[in-house]
Specification:
This protein has 113 residues and is an alpha+beta fold. It has one domain. It is built from 2 helices and 4 strands; from the N terminus they run ββαβαβ. Strands 3-1-2-4 form a 4-stranded antiparallel β-sheet. The longest helix is centred in the C-terminal third of the chain and has 13 residues. The protein is globular, with a radius of gyration of 18 Å. It starts with 16 loop residues before the first strand and ends in a 9-residue tail after the last strand.
Amino acid sequence: MAAVLEVCNYRRMPEIVTLHLAQAVAADVKGYRAGARHAMLIFIRGEPSDQDNARAREVAGKAGWIFVEIQRSKELGGDVELIEDDTLRDAAEHALQHGQCIVTYRDELPPDS
């Protein structure tokens, strides 16, 4: 009996980036006052899952941030070149290449926000 080889046209799915809007407190972050709270955007590459928020908190934690609160998340897909803002587009492209990226806003958030 002869074997039959089936050739599948495999098409790679585009990489997905998920954006997490968060707030966190600086613990040991160069250029930020310890104890100050800042808004940030955390970009994560990979298929969306139930663990996305935990992964985003872990990424921020490894970068020296504590008390990370994820406020909102959004899947960006793989068309990051369509992002108009240069800084955000660069961050999304960095996440596609390296797995994650954080954009932190310089201004401290007031304690009551």
